[in-house]
Backbone:
């Protein structure tokens, strides 16, 4: 590292070309790259809050009986952990941060279709986040319902559910506007020659995601409004004593919240589809199938919500229908995994940080996905429903999947936007620690669940003590790796060695523009003549 | 500022006042019909009759008042997707409700 | 920071339609509940439906259809270069919105006077399906009413822009999108009307 590089701040491209100064050049900017970075740091901030609460949960469960908090605090902590991680980190996570940063460049556009609406999305996100945080410290205190806000408890509890739910409503609005913006952008602003068959797979995945955001989010919006109406007006729509049906709440909630799982995972799959071919130096295998499977996952994923409700008292017919449909989703998901693995075959694989995160994504997502089949089959689900097996399962998919893809994206794309890079060795050490810590923690949880340890319980039987201790140790390893990774990224992006050109030989459009990209992304609008993984025609760097 | 796309894609179609008024008259007639039909005792038939008329009315509003008839095919495709999605949400919920 | 993106009217309308889909599904959630609870409590729904005022409901249907006509005519007017008629037609639409809300106010007041409102003693102690029916009625028409207010405000704002001359025959997509929103309000009512006032 040259000594000069340590003192000059990030410069060039969109970092300079702005009419505003200071913080205003960020929070009032309509540049998709600045909004993307705003989102990135916002979601990362909440991710750290979520991680902190997660560590507290693990500390509490380290030994049976009260360890560091009361049972009531524990209920609030796991609820807020869920709400923060789901609504403030992982749903906006990749689409709003890396999607905003990269997608318009990848399709050769100067910005998204509605730049001001894009800024409004971020503002709504910020306002929603403030409302959610306010709900923790006002009224009856932090919600203790779990992130799902199930009635009848959410209608009755004295904690501040109404405000938290309203915050989530605002966050949903933000998510919808991002979806509207992205679909319009991808339809209308592709550069000349950028036809649908040349769309990078990350863009395809964002397109499918955006549709889910548009069509599913309104359902949870109205559902949450009904919870507020239930609490403030006493409408009784879910109250059995007045003819309401609490199971209908679960239907409406999961009509959104299951597709929301695909809002979380699809963009992650898109990131992996970008990283794998670049670091294998080989065109992606089965481009069309991966693109189509994104849309297929979005479609099939929207009709499987009932598998969250196998033990809710839903009809047996519905259980069978939803169980069958759940298995259908496995097909497009498996198509993706097979295609990634086939891309690796006989590739010239280079194991750098983004690739390591991407490869571990494939493994962790597969473990998560396969354990999902156990939950998707009604007979086995009844055995492990609401146990730590479920907790392990969705952390494998959400953290091992989306989380690791988020980190892959950070190591892959952020140098492009900062013009500086992180150090490789600490990145790999961090990855190794996270990978080990992750598995120690969550695989143990799955074993615990199989043995019958329920989720969301403050205390447990003494025979679960040893494995819980192991899982807690895993959380420490994971967090250590996480800290090393973030410090390394932070230092590298601000003071690291210059990052120039196209060191990894990517063939999509973000790699042909300047580093960092100029405000309007390209000096002149690009004309696309080859596909995003056509490394030969893109020319060797 | 250029508006290169607006003309190329023919989105400046103008629906005449006469046409709009004709649609409005049809909508009023359909409203009268639906009230009349549901005053007669048709049993479950009146639910479907009323819903069918509502669908026709919406179709008229969407096609002419909202210019859907003159938009690119993409608009009709995505509208269809939205409708199918809602129908599927309702339909799958009924697998529970009807068989419980 | 201005990006000087070329203007894209088709894109603007595409975005608006996508947003309308979200509105459609927002009401869709309430329609799902309506369908489910109607299947479970046909008699209570029938009894509840007969307490609604068909005359007021029909009048409001006509008012909204007319407002929609005026809004659609406003688009034709601006495209044929008649800003004055555009503003007049929009005023007509907004006037209809006002009439709609006034009628709605009398309808709701009458219900309140009969002790029918969410959480009222009559509904809490009445048969289970009755409470569900009226809760859905108030939520659905209330949410729709909010949309009428928002749509009216939106068209007022757009109308002032037409008046000031910032929307013209060549540049009118904002007006078109505003009226699209208004038509959606009408569309939702086209279904609320038979479902609550007629078929029960």
Residues:
């Amino acid at each position: 590292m040259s000594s000069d590089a340590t003192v000059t701040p990030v410069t060039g491209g969109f970092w300079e070309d702005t009419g505003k100064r200071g913080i205003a050049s960020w929070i009032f900017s309509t540049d998709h790259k600045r909004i993307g970075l705003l989102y990135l740091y916002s979601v990362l901030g909440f991710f750290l809050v979520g991680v902190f609460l997660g560590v507290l949960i693990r500390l509490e469960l380290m030994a049976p009986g009260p360890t560091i908090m009361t049972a009531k605090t524990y209920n609030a902590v796991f609820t807020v952990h869920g709400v923060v991680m789901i609504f403030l980190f992982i749903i906006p996570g990749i689409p709003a941060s890396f999607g905003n940063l990269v997608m318009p460049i990848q399709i050769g556009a100067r910005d998204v279709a509605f730049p001001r609406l894009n800024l409004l999305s971020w503002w709504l996100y910020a306002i929603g986040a403030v409302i959610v945080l306010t709900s923790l410290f006002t009224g009856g205190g932090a919600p203790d319902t779990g992130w799902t806000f199930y009635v009848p408890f959410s209608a009755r509890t004295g904690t501040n559910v109404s405000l938290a739910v309203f915050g989530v409503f605002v966050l949903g609005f933000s998510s919808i506007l991002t979806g509207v913006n992205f679909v319009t952008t991808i339809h209308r602003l592709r550069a000349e020659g950028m036809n649908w068959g040349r769309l990078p797979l990350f863009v395809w995945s964002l397109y499918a995601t955006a549709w889910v955001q548009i069509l599913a989010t309104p359902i949870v919006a109205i559902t949450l409004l009904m919870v507020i109406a239930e609490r403030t007006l006493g409408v009784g729509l879910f109250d059995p004593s007045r003819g309401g049906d609490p199971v209908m709440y679960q239907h409406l909630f999961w009509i959104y919240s299951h597709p929301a799982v695909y809002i979380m995972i699809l963009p992650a799959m898109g990131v992996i589809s970008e990283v794998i071919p670049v670091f294998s130096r080989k065109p992606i295998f089965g481009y069309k199938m991966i693109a189509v499977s994104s849309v297929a996952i979005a479609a099939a994923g929207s009709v499987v919500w009932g598998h969250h409700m196998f033990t809710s008292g839903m009809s047996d017919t519905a259980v069978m229908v939803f169980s069958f449909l759940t298995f259908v989703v496995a097909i497009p998901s498996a198509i993706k995994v097979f295609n990634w693995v086939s891309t690796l075959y006989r590739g010239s694989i280079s194991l750098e940080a983004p690739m390591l995160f991407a490869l571990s994504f494939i493994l962790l997502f597969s473990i998560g996905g396969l354990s999902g089949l156990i939950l998707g089959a009604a007979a086995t689900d009844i055995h492990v429903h609401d146990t730590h097996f479920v907790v392990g399962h969705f952390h494998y998919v959400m953290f091992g999947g989306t989380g690791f893809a988020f980190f892959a994206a950070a190591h892959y794309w952020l140098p492009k936007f900062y013009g500086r890079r992180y150090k490789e060795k600490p990145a790999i050490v961090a990855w190794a620690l996270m990978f080990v810590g992750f598995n120690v923690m969550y695989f143990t949880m799955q074993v615990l669940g199989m043995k019958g340890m329920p989720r969301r319980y403050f205390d447990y039987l003494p025979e679960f003590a040893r494995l819980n201790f192991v899982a807690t140790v895993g959380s420490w390893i994971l967090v250590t790796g996480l800290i090393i990774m973030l410090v390394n990224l932070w230092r590298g992006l601000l003071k690291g060695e210059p990052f120039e050109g196209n060191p990894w030989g990517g063939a999509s459009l973000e790699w042909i523009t300047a580093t960092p990209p100029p405000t309007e992304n390209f000096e002149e609008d690009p004309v696309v003549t080859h596909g995003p993984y056509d490394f030969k025609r893109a020319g060797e760097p | 500022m250029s508006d290169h796309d607006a003309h190329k894609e023919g989105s400046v179609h103008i629906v005449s006042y006469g046409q709009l008024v004709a649609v409005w008259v049809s909508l009023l007639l359909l409203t009268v019909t639906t009230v009349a039909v549901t005053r007669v005792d048709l049993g479950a038939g009146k639910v479907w009759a009323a819903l069918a008329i509502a669908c026709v009315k919406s179709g008229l509003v969407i096609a002419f008042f909202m210019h859907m008839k003159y938009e690119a095919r993409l608009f009709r495709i995505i509208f269809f997707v939205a409708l199918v999605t809602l129908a599927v949400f309702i339909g799958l919920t009924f697998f529970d409700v009807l068989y419980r | 920071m201005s990006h000087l993106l070329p203007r894209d009217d088709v894109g603007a309308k595409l975005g608006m339609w996508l947003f309308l889909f979200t509105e459609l599904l927002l009401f869709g959630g309430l329609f799902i509940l309506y369908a489910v609870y109607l299947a479970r409590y046909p008699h209570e729904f029938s009894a509840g439906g007969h307490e609604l005022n068909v005359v007021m409901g029909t009048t409001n249907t006509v008012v909204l259809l007319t407002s929609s006509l005026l809004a659609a005519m406003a688009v034709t007017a601006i495209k044929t270069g008649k800003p004055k008629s555009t503003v007049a037609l929009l005023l007509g639409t907004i006037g209809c919105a006002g009439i709609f809300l006034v009628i709605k106010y009398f309808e709701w007041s009458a219900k309140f006077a009969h002790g029918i409102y969410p959480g009222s003693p009559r509904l809490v102690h009445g048969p289970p399906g009755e409470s569900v029916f009226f809760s859905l009625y108030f939520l659905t028409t209330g949410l729709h009413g909010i949309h009428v207010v928002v749509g009216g405000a939106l068209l007022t704002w757009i109308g002032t822009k037409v008046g000031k001359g910032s929307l013209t025959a060549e540049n009118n997509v904002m007006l078109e999108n505003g009226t699209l929103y208004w038509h959606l309000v009408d569309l939702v009512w086209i279904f609320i009307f038979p479902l609550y006032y007629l078929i029960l």
